[in-house]
């Protein structure tokens, strides 16, 4: 299985809402003691544990699919999981689905265009700004202090769900690990 976390490279993006996929991959690398793979040809940071790969595309969000397609093709991986931020879900929500639309998410658009829509999505709700014109600045801003208090627990819950997915069906993962409403204080 190829598990991809969407995000943007660089220190100025590390703690932004758009990088929640990278944050989960970083946590999985530690939890699974994954080893770094030679990845110069993949436009991303690639790690491996058991027979599974963890990928952080370094192409920036809008071109994520290039990196995903390269790893998928080279290793002949059938199953792909993409972890991404989702504006349409409240902060702390965790949902799972296979295929579907991109909802305006440029990382998903790119991935869809390079490997089709037939992959599992781990949707991590980040909430949305008050005004539609603020979306770009919102997703590229850091989590607020109240959200940061819950970030580690939420990332840990996402990791548990993904680890569970390695040996169980999407339906089982959805029924056991979906978080519909995350309670901030």
TrEMBL record:
PROSITE patterns: PEPT_TRNA_HYDROL_1, PEPT_TRNA_HYDROL_2
InterPro entries: Pept_tRNA_hydro (IPR001328), Pept_tRNA_hydro_CS (IPR018171), Pept_tRNA_hydro_sf (IPR036416)
Catalytic activity: an N-acyl-L-alpha-aminoacyl-tRNA + H2O = an N-acyl-L-amino acid + a tRNA + H(+)
Residues at the site labelled Stabilizes the basic form of H active site to accept a proton: 85
GO CC, one annotated term: cytoplasm
Sequence positions that bind tRNA: 13, 60, 62, 106
E.C. numbers: 3.1.1.29
Keywords noted in UniProt: Cytoplasm, Hydrolase, RNA-binding, tRNA-binding
Signal peptide positions (record): none
Subcellular localization(s) per the UniProt record: Cytoplasm
HAMAP family linked to this entry: Pept_tRNA_hydro_bact
Family: Belongs to the PTH family.
Cited function: Catalyzes the release of premature peptidyl moieties from peptidyl-tRNA molecules trapped in stalled 50S ribosomal subunits, and thus maintains levels of free tRNAs and 50S ribosomes.
Protein name: Peptidyl-tRNA hydrolase
Native species: Sulfurimonas lithotrophica
Gene: pth
